[in-house]
Amino acid sequence: MNSKYRLHSSNEIFNQYTYESYEFLSLGVYIDINLNSTSENKTEITIEIRRKMGTFNEPHEVTHANDHIVNIVNYIARLTAMSTDEIIKLKSSQTQNVTAVKKSRKEKNTAAILSFFLGGIGIHRFYLGQTVMGVFYLIFCWTFIPAFIAFIDFFVFIFMSQNKFDLKYNRL
After folding, report:
1. Which of 31, 38, 76, 127 could form a disulfide with 19 if both were Cys (CB 3.0 to 4.6 A apart)?
2. CA 59 from chain center: how many Å?
């Protein structure tokens, strides 16, 4: 898959796989893929797109969900053309990435939301593991300077790419 989609969880016994994707100004979506063998030469594939929080209630969100479905179907089509060795290699690289990512991974959107709502008291800095900065925000919160800086942090997080955020805060 591409870097937009990351393996979130899998159940090899039931052939169920969940990928996650982050979206601009959203907590993102989960993409559930279920594989059901109906015969030796036929497999039923079910794809479900669901929001991490809330429902699809705007037309552009439905469009994004449809785009995810198109992308996933294209990836599945590519997988059907791969050899068994190529699939095993791809699966092992995905599994290694998931192991590395699940080590207390900080989320960009969560940091942005925390900086917007609770940034004046430094909660987003504690979340990112920057305890000393968080303490400074707490000590000086009465001056409203940390709130102003947190507002700037909010925009930095929103416009920062996920890869840059991971490099800076997740130490990948």
Report:
1. 31
2. 22
Q: Which two tokens stand for residue 141?
A: 């919160």
- The answer to whether 56 and 65 are in contact (CB under 8 A) is yes
pTM for the predicted model, two decimal places: 0.49
Q: What is the pLDDT of residue 101?
A: 45
Q: Tell me, what's the pLDDT at 104? A: 58
CB-based contact 23:64 (threshold 8 Å): yes
Positive or negative: CA dihedral 86, 78, 48, 65: positive
Contact 69, 49 (CB under 8 A): yes
Q: How far apart are the two ends of the chain, measured CA to CA in Å?
A: 19
- Best CA proximity match to 74, nearest among 5, 26, 20, 161: 5
According to the model, what pLDDT value does residue 24 have?
60
Q: Which residue has the higher pLDDT, 143 or 25?
A: 143
Structure tokens at 83: 């050899």
CB 121 within 8 A of CB 137: yes
